[in-house]
Amino acid sequence: MAAFLLRRLALLVPTLFFVSVxxxxxxxxxxxDPALVMAxxxxxPTVIAFLRQKYHLDQPLPVRYGLWIEGVxxxxxxxxxxxxxxxxDLILEKLPVTAELAGLAILIAIAIGVPAGILAAxxxxxxxxxxxxMVALWGISTPNFWLGILLILLFSVTLGWLPASGFVPPTESxxxxxxxxxxxxxxxxxxxxxxxxxxxxxxMLQVMSADYVRTARAKGLGQVSVIIRHALxxxxxxxVTLGALECGALLSGAVLTEQVxxxxxxxxxxxxxxxxxxxxxVQGVVLCTAFAYIALNxxxxxxxxLIDPRLRA
Length: 313
Fold this sequence. Notes:
With about 325 residues, the protein is mostly helical. The protein is built from 14 helices and no strands.
């Protein structure tokens, strides 16, 4: 297991290097000139030339990449052209918001999707199975922005139970923080729960017909013990994979949901940066997202070994 982890960690650096080359290269294909965007349409040519020199836009592409990657290696992602703030500070400000939202969404998805998938597999071809499948299809097909607006109308406008938008840090008020995040987290977790339910159901149906499950039943073990101790543990592998991928997708920015609920997370940051040609912010956010995906896949591999002892070899 230790050798496997060392090999995965050794692949981390070249993977991130390759991703950084793609990020920086594809970023240059965006139309428009960042210097013109910052200076304005009627700006003096001297001002435009100064901005290009300040942000190294007048340098060849390899030189600009070298300067950027050297700064990244020292923890410096550059400065936002639009906000005039270090990109590192922007990331450290927005990342905890999206990370908390993503964590709550995944918890909601697991709390709904996994039990529903187990129940649908155990009650295969019954009314419960068909009902869970219909609910899952509803969750997958419901647009996040539409569900978010309906929740705001019901719980904020009509009932007045929850705030309609905004974000309160947990350091200020934990209760208010959870109240502002519960609706957007449910909106995101609803779609993931539907997919997780289908994966759990499919994996459980395969495991329930395995020889060791039939042997456990033949030994006289109860239904709950057979399902939880023998079947579920081996059926969790695809669920763990799905959870890691979905969590990475949420960290990359749940753009529509953050816009609907006015949450200042990664989604709004990356959208504003793209529209304003803020190269440094786009590059920093995408690179952090790539690192998050790699780290989550590594954690998923570790979870595989903890769940299934056969994989530790």
